[in-house]
Amino acid sequence: MITGIGVRTAGGNSTKEFWNLLTSGSSATRRISFFDPSPYRSQVAAEADFDPVHEGLSPLEIRRMDRASQFAVVCAREAVADSGLEFDTVDPSRVGVSLGSAVAAATSLEQEYLVLSDSGRDWLVDPANLSPHMFDYLVPSVMPAEVAWTVAAQGPVTMVSNGCTSGLDSVGHACQLIREGSAEVMLAGASDTPITPIVVSCFDAIKATTPRNDDPEHASRPFDRTRTGFVLAEGAAMFVLEDYDRARRRGARVYAEISGYATRCNAYHMTGLKTDGREMAEAIRVALAESRTAATAVDYINAHGSGTRQNDRHETAAYKRSLGEHAYRTPVSSIKSMVGHSLGAIGSIEIAASALAIEHGVVPPTANLHEADPECDLDYVPLTAREQRVDTVLTVGSGFGGFQSAMILRRPTGGVR
Amino acid sequence: MSGPVVTGIGLLAPNGFGVERYWEAVLEGRGGIGRITRFDVSRYPARLAGQIPDFRAADHLPSRLLPQTDISTQLALVAADWALLDAKIEPGAFADYDMGVVTSNACGGFEFTHREFKKLWSQGPKAVSVYESFAWFYAVNTGQISIRNELRGPSSALVAEQAGGLDAIGHARRTIARGTPMVVTGGVDSALDPWAWAAQIASGRVSRSADPRRAYLPFDSAAEGYVPGEGGAILVLEAADAARARGAHQVYGEIAGYAATFDPPPGSGAPSALRRAVELALADAGMRPDEIDVVFADAAGVADLDRVEAEAISAVFGAGAVPVTAPKTLTGRLYSGGGPVDVAAALLSIRDGVVPPTSGTTDVPSGYRIDLVRGVPRAGRVSSALVLARGKWGFNAAVVVREATV
């Protein structure tokens, strides 16, 4: 049961702002301002206007933490406050953390590298200029540790780093820990802040990100015939997850129940996708089975929809393969059209969007979708949000390494609210 | 209820290339710690590491994989190959969705990414490799093992500094309990390029000693840090009935219990949660402390951490009541690889009825109240073992391995 949500994205400095952005159908992508993007093929990103001081982080925390940790901690605090759960009334040994991230401390790694290597001149980096936090950037499990410290969690704490499905898999992992009884409460979610030269250039190298530099506000175009790649983004989302009985006992507000989750690998290629969507379809099928939900009950698909040529066709095939004719009757949308693709974080951000779609009875649109790719022939909710009752959401992720994940969220039952 | 069983081991350690050579070295007290040879280490304040000598990836892997992988991934792929070979999993023995991969990783493909950082900043963005986007990230070993062996079941990659390797094995066990009959699991790390080396030194825990035999002395009154190493182990874990059904030719033992806990925030004054991890893992295995024959310790080599671990062990088992050992003194600490290598060593202890010694350590403070196995291997029946691993910032993981009854 999701009982608390905290989100930070481009154009979303709170869960409320994030939801307002999604329902407005406007994009928060822009020309990169964090550094001079002119040497790069893709010069567009979804940057968050994140002010750590305004967010309440102490000077010590700001100095100590990489930007991705800062996002995670801020979202964790927002989720905890939102849940109304008094953590000092919960046995800390029954509280765990599951945090996803794909590239973790990339920002700080790059900053430190420039200092240690004399801006890339020295292979033998200079240990005399070493930051005491350099080890925290090498080994990113400091991120879940920072989140654990916000509530003094002493149960299972881990980082799930499955590339671009990390944010779905970290929450799926947390649900498994609650179900098996290893924890009663989990702080789960994901954070990535990859808008940094090394990450921009590694996606440039494989032409995965869009070169649509003359029109940054409309550069993220999932399912559109003119799409040319994804828009790199940063962001985080964290959740308070509790089992049904605990949430009910304390009269918590429940946004949604996570009723099914599954992941599969395509064992095909580290970055390539087969056109048939076989493994994603299998993940969807197994997630529906775990949820005991019929394919025909899905009334919104929150798509991976990255906006690369191959991805959008791949997942369209996966929906048809797993849901059959029902795929054609189900609204499908990609919020990456508005908040970009924040790698490991986006899966959790999309879970937040899915939960809020249930809560508000609104399906967020796919922005910038003017003319669909003929091979993408489903209802992608172009441009404008749609008011409609949403009881069951399928949200999916697809990532480098071949990971394909699917999760089912549904309206809570049993009078919890 | 019986847990899943280990039917194959692939292991690469600084003192042994392959599981049997490693085990022989451990029993003979041969170490793999020496001065770093990969780069000129003279200006660094710490100079000793456990390096795998003479590893040539081209001898073991197809040439197309070489330019796209870091040495840590090459080691992981070889370890996975050997584990599957050791388990004699025939093609078609399992459906593709019935085979998963769960690995742990602490540093990612760091040497590879260091090279790409250097290219970016000295030659510009166009010089960055087309492989950088996936050679670096922490999921790389899981992804590459999945692709090479066509394993399409539930898979994941976990990070918890030095504790993560046991978490991976614990999660593999969970994945099997949830219905996937075979999972390839473990951890491999290597971060011995100049930048990663500097970063490891920044942890404040790396030994600055110049004497390979005295640099890493866990539980010794002279402990002054650890020696990092490279390598790790990949295991084939199968549901017991699946191993039986396919007529597995060998079973090393059962992963009988697992637990993970996290320490209270620094400065809170509250006690470490390590003891609870031990108790939960024993409870998970349905075993009493007196049924455990040996403890493979985390053995941080840092006095405060050693004391906490010794206290947790003596509190659960009684003063000096169980043999404790740390063969990792011969390899250095292997990050995500450390826990899985110790699980392999524990399984071999069960197989051969012998507990390997902790090398180097001589003077254990009496207040630690542990029976640390030193000097020569201790022969005697071993039917179960507890393996501990701890990660910086507060991660604790515990695995119970037991003689299989298959």
TrEMBL record, chain A:
NCBIfam families: PRK07314.1. Belongs to the thiolase-like superfamily. Beta-ketoacyl-ACP synthases family. Residues 1-411 form the Ketosynthase family 3 (KS3) domain. One of its GO terms (molecular function) is 3-oxoacyl-[acyl-carrier-protein] synthase activity. Keywords: Acyltransferase, Transferase. One of its GO terms (cellular component) is cytosol. This is Act minimal PKS ketosynthase (KS/KS alpha). Pfam families: ketoacyl-synt, Ketoacyl-synt_C. It comes from Actinokineospora iranica. One of its GO terms (biological process) is fatty acid elongation.
UniProtKB/TrEMBL annotation, chain B:
Gene3D superfamilies: 3.40.47.10. One of its GO terms (molecular function) is 3-oxoacyl-[acyl-carrier-protein] synthase activity. PROSITE patterns: KS3_2. Residues 1-403 form the Ketosynthase family 3 (KS3) domain. CDD domains: CLF (cd00832). Keywords: Acyltransferase, Transferase. Belongs to the thiolase-like superfamily. Beta-ketoacyl-ACP synthases family. This is Act minimal PKS chain-length factor (CLF/KS beta). It comes from Actinokineospora iranica.
